[in-house]
Amino acid sequence: MQVDVYGDTLCALVSATALASTGNQVQLHLPAGPHAEQLQRGECPFREAGLADLMAEQMQGGRLMLAPLAAPPQPSAVIWLALNPDSMPEALSLIAALPERCTRRWLVVNQSTFAVGSSELLQQTLLDCDTPPTQPGAVVSLPDLLIEGNALQSFMRADSWLLGADADWARQLVTELLRPFNRRRDAIMPMRPREAEFTKLAITGMLATRLSYMNDMANLADSLDVDIEQVRQGMGADRRIGDAYLYPGCGFGGLSFSRDVMSLASTLEGSGLAAQLLDEVLNINERQKEVLFRKLWRHYGTDLRGRKVALWGVAFKPETSRINNAPALKLLEALWAQGVEVHVHDPRALDTLARWAGERDDLVLHQDPYAAVAGADALMLVTEWKAYWSPDLPRLRELMAAPLLLDGRNVWDPAFMKQNGFTYYGIGRR
User: Using CA atoms, how far apart are residues 79 and 151, in angstroms rounded to an integer?
Assistant: First the structure.
């Protein structure tokens, strides 16, 4: 098929690349901006496993081409929208600009995270622009369920697809488009468009609620002399609960994740329902982003001025260079406010952090994690990159001015760290 994908989001790039890899002719229509400039230079704006290589392969093979943000040509079989959440006006303009009375029906796949009911609004716009409709087109909802850090595989081997469609022919065409990614088992779940849109938000809300609940339990465990790791394993063993998203830590980040939770809370309030639970989930998460700072502040008797602290990891999660709403950002601001000099290492996110922070005397970026800890009064582990799980402990202890570890992801064993001469603070660990 000839598919026209619109957007410069991670979802747009992954969708376009994956669809091209199965033999479709894909045009990726990009809005003007830094992402478009990078792609024109042959660079991938997102550091996702396998994405840059597969994208380059599809471009070289002539199956993936870049194009400006304009109406597609007549031969297009599918219009695929993967725009930013605030781009609904652009989506409506695009639909209104589609050529009228073409020889077959327009199919629009809406993968953008717009408000619930947006696919129906796009559908009405599609009908209005071709009145009377010669062959009524259809808009289907296929919410973005990508897992950042593993985005390409989460598209090509999706656990589930939420396919919201009212027209049978549209549902069948999208099912055929997804068939190469749907062979192990039928992962497509058919429903109405607004049900698919709402399910996407509800999933994110549930995951965020589990994370904030476990962070609350971890903070309580600290005061009760309880090891939250034992509690986590006991909870996860209950089949009614399971172990997914039960890992306490120093807060969650990610632009899409946080924005989806806020969108769900806004939808609840707009419907006249109070959003106390989700509001509290977000409040807990913001407080949790400072939990490592509070532990450091208490350890040094509230006097941090002039100290040097090392941070390992600033990306909001491993395997990505993105720092959107990352816990490290709020932690950095709290440390700087107390006169702390911060030395940072991250495998991928240093350039992104440098653009966010600008030139500062109290921020030093390091390519080597051990260079970051030299002379440090504390080491904070913020992002659980695998490279941090098994550090050279004798070297670490020798380099640091004070052997103080603050583990924001509970990846280290408290007893083992203490045996090796470190003072250790985790999240809810005894």
Answer: 21
Looking from the CA of 1 toward its CB, the CA atoms found within 13 Å total 19
Please give the pLDDT value at position 354: 97
Q: What is the DSSP letter of 24?
A: -
Predicted structure pTM score: 0.87
Residues 186 and 390: beta-carbon distance below 8 Å: no
Burial of 426 (0-12, 13-18, 19+ CB in 10 A): buried
CA 188/CA 158 separation, integer angstroms: 9
* CB 125 within 8 Å of CB 95: yes
What are the CA-CA distances from residue 8 to residues 32, 124, 272, 293 (Å)?
Answer: 9, 25, 34, 36
What is the spatial distance between Cα 194 and Cα 198, in angstroms, rounded to a whole number? 6
H-helix or E-strand spanning residue 83? none
The rounded distance, in Å, linking the Cα atoms of 350 and 383 is: 13
pLDDT, position 76:
82
Give the integer Cα–Cα distance in Å for 189 and 242.
22
Dist CA 248 CA 213 (whole Å): 9
Residues of the chain with pLDDT under 70: 73-74, 100-104, 130-134, 269-274
Burial class (CB in 10 A: 0-12, 13-18, 19+), 369: buried
Residue for token pair 């781009």: 87
In contact, 282 and 218? CB cutoff 8 Å = no
Structure confidence at residue 149 (pLDDT): 84
Helical H runs in 313-392? 327-337, 350-357, 369-373
For 250-272, letters b (16+ CB in 10 Å) and e give bbbbbbbbbbbbbbbbebbeeee
Tell me, what's the pLDDT at 272?
67
For residue 153 the two structure tokens come to 């595989």
Q: How many CB atoms lie within 10 A of CB 153?
A: 17
